[in-house]
Amino acid sequence: MASVQGLASGFSLDLGPLKEPLGFIRVLEWVFAIFAFATTGGYSGKTNIKVPCEPPSSSHDVTAVFGYPFRLGAHPFEITYCNDSRSTMHLQGDFSSSAEFYVCIGVFGFLYCTATLILYLGYQSVYRQTSRGPIIDLVVTALFAFLWLVSSSAWAKGLTDVKWATNPEHVAKKCQICEAVEFPSMGRLNASVIFGFLNLILWAGNCWFIYKETPFHKDPSQAATMEEGGAPGP
């Protein structure tokens, strides 16, 4: 209870850090992390083929629906042939690992940005009191930059595979007598990959500004003062 009261009493809202690269870039990371996992996690698309019959007006349209987390084999679709017989087929491929990993990094990045923004804006004195806060922040930010590189690269490859597996021309070949009609809209997923690499740039670039807050970038006398819990000299 005392620790909660201590945190409450130590809170002092200061929007000044938002005018500095450290806080401003963190806000951008917060926004782009939301865009990254939202454009991927909420996606739903469809690919369309048809069974050509004579006369053409009796042709049957077939729609295969798919979406996040892109376990395509879990999406069956029914084909009605010209003689009204039916069969069930499935899209092929499981690309959930790269998609879920990417979304996971986006969600955790969003949560970390939220926590550090609270720290920057409400507990700036605590953050700068010792070197521990900036050092931990630097390590975690660098780790997220690496994870954005890995997850964005993996998801870019996964998206390429999703596009191939849901290509109506590829799906129509499995039906043998079917024809491709409409390609699925992938603009949202293309944007998700772009957001991933933008996050990589933001998090990697922010490492420099956080590094400037650590004693590694300060003179030894100032770093020693901060280690002792005192305020840095002018």
TrEMBL record:
InterPro entries: Marvel (IPR008253), Synaptophysin/porin (IPR001285)
Subcellular location: Membrane
Primary location: membrane
Residues in MARVEL domain copies: 17-215
Transmembrane segments: 99-123, 135-156, 191-211
Matches recorded under Pfam families: MARVEL (PF01284)
Keywords, ordered alphabetically: Glycoprotein, Membrane, Transmembrane, Transmembrane helix
RNA-binding as UniProt keyword: no
Assigned protein family: Belongs to the synaptophysin/synaptobrevin family.
Name by which UniProt lists this protein: Synaptophysin-like 2a
Protein's organism: Poecilia reticulata
